[in-house]
Amino acid sequence: MASPFFFVKKKDGKLRPVQDYRKLNAMTIKNCYLLLLISELIDMLKGAKFFTKLDIHWGYNNIQIKEGDE
Questions:
Q1: Which PANTHER family match (predicted)?
Q2: Which of 3, 15, 42, 49 could form a disulfide with 7 if both were Cys (CB 3.0 to 4.6 A apart)?
């Protein structure tokens, strides 16, 4: 499913690119769980012996994904 893309003329005559996500949003499966608050996550880390920080910014396109799972 895709969302339609078109142009709308502005008052000054220039074109504004517009994308209508209403149908796509209607088909989107909503999260079925609540996200934890930062304070709750920090409380869960109390007493931990190890912490890990991952920087995946540069690795995003280097991670191989099994065919069919893309």
A1: RIBONUCLEASE H, TRANSPOSON TY3-I GAG-POL POLYPROTEIN
A2: 15
61: left (phi over 0), alpha (psi -120 to 50) or beta: alpha
Query: How many CB atoms sit inside 10 A of residue 36's CB?
Result: 11
pLDDT of 60 over the 70 cut: no
Q: Which two tokens stand for residue 67?
A: 């065919």
Encoded tokens for 21: 């996500």
> Pick the residue with more confidence: 63 or 33?
33
Enumerate the domain spans of the chain.
Answer: 5-62
pLDDT band at 14 (very low <50, low <70, confident <90, very high): very high
